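Objective 1b. Sequence-to-structure analysis of Lipoprotein.
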Amino acid sequence: MRKLMIAVAAVAGLGLVTGCQQKSQVQSEREDVAEAQSELGQAQHNVNTEVAETRQDAQKDVNEAQQDLNEEQKDLAQAEQEQAAEQRDEAIGGSGTANSDANVKAEEVKGTIKSASASSLSLIVPDKNNQVMSFQANQQVQVTRDDKPVSLSDLKPGDEVRASYQTDANGQMVLRSIDVTKQSAQHPGKQKK
C-alpha cells in the first residue's frame, strides 16, 4: 500500500508539475498576446499618424492649387476686361487708350487735301498714282501747322499735308495726326506770290 500511495503521490506531483508547466505556458502565451496587441496598437498609431500627415499634405496641396486657380481667374478676368475695353474703343471709332493704340501700327502718308470736314478728310496721294484716300477723323486727331495746333476745319483743299493714321477693326482708316507742310492759296489772308 505504501507503494500505491507513493505512486498516487508521484502521479499527483507529476500532475501538479504538468499543471504548473501548462500554467506557465498559458502565462507565456498571454504575454505574447499582450505584446502582439501592444505592437498592433503601436502600428495602428503609426498608421493613424501617417494618414493624418498625408491628409495635411493633401489639404496644403489643395489650398495651393486653389490659390493658383484664384490667381489664374483674376488674370483671366483682367485680360477679358482689357479685351472688352479694346473692342469698345474700336467700336467708338478708334479713339482708344494708349494701350490699345500701341498695339496697332500707325501708317503715314503725304498728299494734297481734296476735301476736309470735321469728321473726314480726303487726300490725293502722288506716291500712289494720285489715288484718293479717305480718312475718318475724331476729337483726338492732332492737327498742326508750323508746329502750332489748328482745327481740322481750318484745312483747305490744296493744302499739302503729312497724315498719320491707323486702320480700325472695321477697316476704316482713322486719322491720328495731320501736319500741314504747305498751305494752299485758298486760305484767307494768304497772298499769292
